[in-house]
Amino acid sequence: MHLKTMLAATLLACSAVCLADDYPNRAITFVVPSAAGGGLDVLTRTLAADMSKRMGQPIVIENKPGASGMIAAQTVARAKPDGYTVLITTSAALTNVPFVYAKVPYDVKRDLAFVTQLWAGPLVLAVIREVPAKTMKEFLEWAGQNKGKVNYGSFGVGTLGHLLGAYMSQSKGLDMTHVAYKAEAPLIQDLVGGQVTWAIATVGSLRPYFDSGRVRPLAVLGDHRSKELPNVPTLAEAGLTDPEYKPFGWVAMMAPAGTPPGVLGRLERGARTSVQTPQMKVGLQAFAMEPIGNSSADFRRDYEATTAMVERLVKAAGARID
Fold first, then answer.
1. DSSP H helical ranges for 146-196
2. Rounded distance, CA 219 to CA 207, Å?
3. 162 beta partners
4. How far apart (Å, rounded) are the C-alpha atoms in residues 310 and 321?
5. Do you know which InterPro entries this protein is assigned to (predicted)?
6. Mind listing the pLDDT tens digit of every residue in the chain (322 residues)?
7. Cα 115 from Cα 51, distance rounded (Å)
8. What span, in angstroms and rounded, lies between the C-alpha atoms of 151 and 155?
9. Domains, the chain, ranges and CATH?
10. Closest by alpha carbon to 270, among 20, 92, 54?
11. 92 by DSSP, 3-state: which?
């Protein structure tokens, strides 16, 4: 029996090595938690085009929006761990959702493997032009004078825009209403149309509306100003110095847990190289994003630090969904 166990383990190890040596030998699918045409979708397709050339196989994009990224993450978590089903996701599904929802159909550490963080970009808090405030201080005062009348939109329940809005509403006693969307594109459409009062979204998506004056930026998330909006302060500079306002978003690549190390390494090397190409940098710049392309170990360390901050934010905001 002992001999059989050893033989089985040896065969399994050999199988994993052979899979890594032969990988990839057919099309790879990138599962994306956004609708086609959005910023994440466009950038993922640019990344996929370059990685496809480097890896010698087609890369297909499968859009699975909704449920704050859980649908896409669950799809990959349950996929065969062979490197042919890969998740390209915003940080929300990994760092936020597990603390917000009582029932999440996957466990990030148990069901998914860390590959690399791909890129990050500044998020900005913006208000519609009907709001008279020009600064965060003025906005908070105005919102306090209009309790129960102000609403804000986000990419979905559990996303950073939702959590920060909930925390701001609760900590400042503003009684603001949250409106959740399945993706950024419909959120931007309703913000520009005046259906929501304010929102936190990517600088690249909102920049055209800043130029036209239809939407006004008040503050950016993160520890430094956006290169695209050098005159717009950070939340901390605007007076919101609580640690709950520190998290910011990024986009990462994950694979099913159990994917052979050699396959994960191939994906990591391909993604880290592709995200630094001139064409990719031009695409990222168009959306006011910056490449990261770190190691899987650095990715995991950043994930741990981010989840610790998000957990505090969720508890402080009371944004728990049973």
1. 160-172, 184-193
2. 13
3. none
4. 15
5. BUG, Bug_dom1
6. 556 555 555 555 555 555 578 999 999 999 999 889 888 999 999 999 999 999 999 999 999 998 889 999 999 999 999 999 999 999 989 999 999 999 999 999 999 999 999 999 889 999 999 999 999 999 999 999 999 999 999 987 778 899 999 999 999 999 999 999 877 889 999 999 999 999 999 898 899 999 999 999 999 998 888 888 999 999 999 999 998 888 888 999 999 999 999 999 999 999 999 999 999 999 998 888 889 999 999 999 999 988 988 898 888 777 788 7
7. 14
8. 14
9. 2-121+249-317 (3.40.190.150), 123-245 (3.40.190.10)
10. 54
11. helix
Residue listed under structure tokens 């908070």: 140
Q: Which secondary structure element, helix H or strand E, spans residue 219, and what is its range?
A: strand 215-220
Q: Which residues pair with 153 in a beta bridge?
A: 179, 199
Distance (Å) of CA 108 to CA 14, 93, 228, 260, 299: 27, 9, 33, 17, 13
- β-pairing, 250-256 vs 198-202, is unpaired
DSSP 286: H
DSSP string, 4-63: HHHHHHHHHHHHHHHHHHH--SS-EEEEESS-TTSHHHHHHHHHHHHHHHHHTS-EEEEE
Task: Return the structure tokens found at 213.
Answer: 């004056």
The DSSP output letter for 249 is: -
At 2 the three-state DSSP class reads: helix
For residues 215 and 192, the answer to whether their CB atoms sit within 8 Å is: yes
| Amino acid residing at 111 | D
The whole-number pLDDT of residue 120 equals 92
Question: Is this model's pTM higher than 0.70 or not?
Answer: yes
Amino acid letter, 127:
V
* Distance, CA of 211 to CA of 245 (rounded, Å): 26
Q: What residue spans of the chain are helical by DSSP H?
A: 2-22, 39-55, 70-77, 97-100, 108-111, 136-145, 160-172, 184-193, 203-212, 261-274, 278-286, 296-317
- The β-bridge relationship of strands 85-90 and 123-128 is unpaired
Q: What pLDDT is recorded for position 11?
A: 55
